[in-house]
Fold this sequence. Notes:
about 575 residues; alpha+beta; 6-stranded antiparallel beta barrel; 5-stranded antiparallel beta sheet; 11 helices; about 40% helix
Amino acid sequence: MITGIIRGAxxxxxxxxxxxxxLSIWPDVGEGDSLLIxxxxxALLKNRGIVxxxxxxxxxxxxxxxxxxxxxxxxxxxxxVVAVMISPRSEAQQRAVLQxxxxxxxxxxxxxxxxxAADQExxxxxxxxxxxxxxxxxxxxxAMETANQLADHFGCERVNIGFxxxxxxxxxxxxxxxxxxxxxxxxxxxxxxMEEAVDQRITMVYPSIKQRESAVSRAHAELAEEQQGMxxxxxxxxxxxxxxxxxxxxxxxxxxxxxxxxxxxxxxANLVGPALELKQREERSSWSKGIEAxxxxxxxxxxxxxxxxxxxxxxxxxxxxxxxxxxxxxxMTSAASIEGAVRQVLAAPQNGYVKQAxxxxxxxxxxxxxxxxxxxxxxxxxxxxxxxxxxxxxAEYQDALAKRERVELSVLRAQLDQVSAxxxxxxxxxxxxxxxxxFDGVVVSGDLSQSLGAPVETGQVLYEIAPLESYRVVLEVxxxxxxxxxxxxxxxxxxxxxxxxxxxxxIDQVVPVAVSKxxxxxxxxxxxxxxxxxxxxxxxxxxxxxxxxxxSLLWIWTHSIVDRIRLWAWAAGW
Length: 574
């Protein structure tokens, strides 16, 4: 409509994410792009049409032109900008060109509003169709209601809806017909047309509107001829993932289906298809629903979805299966310590004071070696006292003997025996003031070197001595692991002081009395070493493992947790 156009373009306005974009430009190759964009931007900023006269462009700016731009408004909001470059002309002609551009914008706005109204009408019909489908209890009633609404909305002579029953399609509903005979020729031809479209998985239209060259429309042609030249359109009905049937629309030959009507029909079919499929699924028997659930479960388990998760779970199951089959040696683990097989206690023989301490805990001693000495001064004085008394009585005894006084001699002889006994008693006590090692061994406890002069009482333990190379292993077995422990079972001991050396032992005795210590209960189990080592010392601690026999690896690694869960469940009353 505008003469003298040098170049023109329709632009989308620029924003923060994109540059100015030309929706349409004519001619494709030319000059003045920057001038057109600059003018369009100016018009967008002012939100009105503008004219820029006497503009120069081309090589060395030798050519003259006029630039006119106008924003295109929809609901008073700019959605695009049209800009043209025209040959120079008068101001009246420039205003006329600007008015033509504005009229074009009004035409486009009217076109968009009409399209919006059509979309709203289609949306309202779609909502009504979905409401009708969901409101019916059976797929047959829902299909009948849908066929009636499609026939009324598109002005069709007849609308047919069919569902797949395996491979063939069976007609389910005909618009405005409560019932029909499925054995009639018309029904057979409608089903053939539906199968023709579904097999090719395309929308079939007869008479054809640029149909695919390879499409076969024989069944549609026969149906149209049967109905005296009707226009036929068949659209496959798609459910969630598969085609569940088809919709066949029939119009008078004078009102064929155009592209717009076909597009709307396809959109509606895609909308109502899943709803009709849902109705069909609800009508299935419990047996069919169960089989379908198993199929979906199998597809979910063996399908390609969540492959990483499935591979991980499968690997875990295989690992559990292997662990449940493969056996290993179950070794019960517990804390252990070294004790002497015999422990000799050296106690204070009488009350006294520590005079000398020759050894302390950890020292090696030999049989007969002096260990400590108690202060004997009081005993020496007591012995002198009794010795003086003995000498005195002895002198009286000699005098009575000279006088031959028999009665007095008897009394003095008894006194002499009594004093002699007291002297021997004191001498024995003097001997016991020195403590000697009873055998070769190691001092387990006792250190009097820091207690010289300290008083001791009769029976007070001063030292404990254990023999060398005669030890036993004491295991502190937790009560949850005590089952199955018995005399004769073998094990291995690892001492903290010798982490690279293991010692073999055999259980000698399981003391059937639980010991409570440090908030836990354990049983004392005594074992003997197969080969005692001179490097071991009483009091050393470590970890012992007892061979309890062969069990599956899965049981070995999980039995502790399983037993705890069983105990908790039983306590909870389950």
